[in-house]
Amino acid sequence: MPHQPSLQSSRIALLVIDVQNDFIPGGELAVPGGDVIVPLINRLGERFKQVIIAQDWHPPGHASFAPSHPGRKPYEVIQLPYGEQTLWPIHCVRDTPGAQLHADLHLPHAQLIIRKGCNPDIDSYSAFKEADRTTTTGLAGYLKERGIDTVYLVGLALDFCVMFSALDARTAGFNTFVVMDACRAIDLDGSLAAAIDRMQVAGVNLIDSSSLSG
Ligand code: VGL
Ligand code: ZN
Fold first, then answer.
1. The pLDDT of residue 1
2. Which structural domain, as residue segments, surrounds residue 32?
3. The domain spanning residue 116 has which CATH number?
4. N or C terminus: which one in the chain shows less Cβ crowding within 10 Å?
């Protein structure tokens, strides 16, 4: 595992993924334990100089919503022009309470909130690249222009948006860490174990917050 410089370094950023009401128990696509990690993310956030927040932000009728496909049910997988798409309950519709960041999330020094999944026809689990694997959100450019070379990811859901963001961060050349105890998973059909495997194979460092120094 690479040496970890101080978290206050301007070359390091914390990426807080999708800590939004719809992914919290009681929400439309609740991730078990999603609320439990919020205080830990707040404490971690204080230790980083650079904090970036990702927000799932879908237009009404989004292609990832099961009701957008007559006869289909949530959690079925369908074929869209860009490949396989898991269908979800309607969630994180832009400008609705479910899409808001969790009220207890406290990251006052975060400088960027990057919204994703805004294209009606394309999903985007990743905060870097949409599911067509071509359209970028601009996040890699933002980080690179600011001299950031190392990212730590936390949030929801570990086996979807955190994993895809971490894989894309790695592909874009960032030293990439996922702070596992500050994430929670949906775990659909073994997706958690598969995600851990994929991240490890890709060279993403999976750590616990207790091993963070600085
Ligand atoms: C997510 C499913 C659909 C996530 C977002 O944040 O992991 N999962 N949209
Ligand atoms: Zn979504």
1. 58
2. 12-59+92-209
3. 3.40.50.850
4. N
- Considering the domain boundaries, does residue 166 fall inside one? yes
Q: Active site residue: 92, 116, 123, 129, which one?
A: 116
DSSP summary character for residue 89 = -
Q: What confidence score (pLDDT) does residue 213 get?
A: 80
**Is 18 part of the annotated catalytic residue set?**
yes
pTM: 0.97
From the CA of 6, how far away is ligand 2's center (Å)?
33
Q: Is residue 5 part of a domain?
A: no
From CA 143, how far away is CA 62, in angstroms rounded? 28
Low-confidence stretches of the chain (pLDDT beneath 70): 1-5
Predicted local distance difference test score (pLDDT) of residue 3: 58
| Residues at CB less than 6 angstroms from ligand 1 | 18, 23, 56, 88, 125, 156-157, 160-161
In the numeric block, the tokens 């960032």 are attached to 174
Which tokens sit at 77?
């997988």
Q: How many domains does the chain have?
A: 1
For residue 87, how far is the Cα from the chain centroid? Answer: 17
pLDDT of residue 141: 98
Looking at the domain assignment, is residue 2 inside a domain?
no
Strand partners, 152: 14, 177
